[in-house]
Amino acid sequence: MSRPPDPRALLRQQQIELPSWAFGNSGTRFKVFAQDGIPRDPYEKIADAAQVHRYTGVTPTISLHIPWDAVDDYHELAEHARVNGVSIGVINSNTFQDDDYRLGSVCHPDPAVRRKAIDHLLACVDIMDTTGSRHLKLWFADGTNYPGQDNLTSRQRRLSAALDEVYARLSDDQRLLVEYKLFEPAFYATDVPDWGTAYAHCVRLGPKASVVVDTGHHAPHTNIEFIVAFLLGRSGLGAFDLNSRFYADDDLMVGAADPFQLFRIMNEIVAADAVTPDSGVLYMLDQCHNIEPKIQAVIRSVMNVQEATAKALLVDRAALATAQSEGDVLGANGILMDAYNTDVRPLLRDLREDMGLDPDPIGAFQRSGYLEKVIDERVGGQAAGWGV
Ligand code: PSV
Ligand code: MN
Predict the structure, then answer these.
(1) Is ligand 1 within 6 A of the CB of residue 286?
(2) Cβ pair 269, 225 in contact under 8 A
(3) Is residue 297 over pLDDT 80?
(4) Would you say the CB of residue 307 lies under 6 angstroms from ligand 1?
């Protein structure tokens, strides 16, 4: 058996982007449980995200969601991120929280509503110009609740027209990421329900558009690693929104519900040599921490991604290729399972020490006194949350 190369070199270069909204209050449609010390504005969210980078060393960028993170001065916000040792990453548009979008946004039957939605997307590109962000992420809540409600083909045409306009606005080094989701909030027909629809739109648009795989956006039992492998094979995979789910779009900590699925996804990533940022694939979290403390939950999520990646890097690729070409079903499966069943936590502790970090990032954060400090400081004002 050959020995796979030491995973630490690639793990050191891996980068995971954090969502600003993971640090705000969140909940279900039944209740949002408020926590103490929650950021009250995008500046404080960035400060919290910077803590995660401080203790993990692999999360140097933060995704913003507009208008949740709207500010008067994006230059100042980018500078604030820089001073905190991080930078602003993907800009996420939001065309789902306005009364005008009841029947959709860019697919709405009324051209005036479509215009409003497209103008928002273009305004997001203006923000990118200021923050230096390279990616605009589009997720459309558009769809219909009842058969006959609207013409499905016309809605696709409206979607194409909107995407064309936004694509044309991108500068040479800016990219469009198109996210799909099976259902919710629309229950009958979602306008971008799956990777195939997203990919078809991206292919038509051109090389600056690619697909976002949000791991929570599929029907139960969907083979997500197949989607990942397929898109990687056609340069169609732009990014991940990582999270985990037991039922629907649960937005739980990635790797919590099904660590084996996360490993299988990372196995395809490693096989395609797409772990590091130069692969062009972005690894982002898209999670909400409704009942658990948020900064620690984000650190745990980052650790879970690192563990899955480390295990995938331990797969003996040469032996696997031989077993596969010989049709050795049990041998090939055994090679994968050997890697999955390896305890990589000591390796990751070593890696963190090599990087000058505490081997126990959650413990180190908890001992730092940061939480107590922000609980004292962040009194008054409105805690950040969905829509704020
Ligand atoms: C939609 O469910 C989604 O996954 C999109 O990425 C949104 O931007 C994000 O959630 C908001 O949490
Ligand atoms: Mn998402």
Answers:
(1) yes
(2) no
(3) yes
(4) no
Rounded Cα distance, 226 and 152, in Å = 27
pLDDT tens digits, residue range 60-90? 999 999 999 999 999 999 999 999 999 999 9
Around 172, how many Cα atoms within 13 Å sit in the side-chain half-sphere? 0
C-beta separation of 317 from 267 below 8 A: no
Question: Residue 5's pLDDT band (boundaries 50, 70, 90)?
Answer: confident
Tell me the pLDDT tens digit for each residue of 338-357: 999 999 999 999 999 999 99
pLDDT class for 36, splitting at 50, 70, 90? Answer: very high
Among protein residues, the one with the nearest Cα to ligand 1's atom 9 is 286
Whether ligand 1 lies within 6 angstroms of the CB of 139 is answered as yes
Ligand 1 center–CA 369 separation, angstroms: 31
Burial string for 2-31 (b: 16+ CB within 10 Å, else e) reads eebeebbebbeebbbbbbbbbbbbbeeeee
CA of 359 to the centre of ligand 2 (A): 30
Find residue 136's DSSP bridge partners: 91, 176
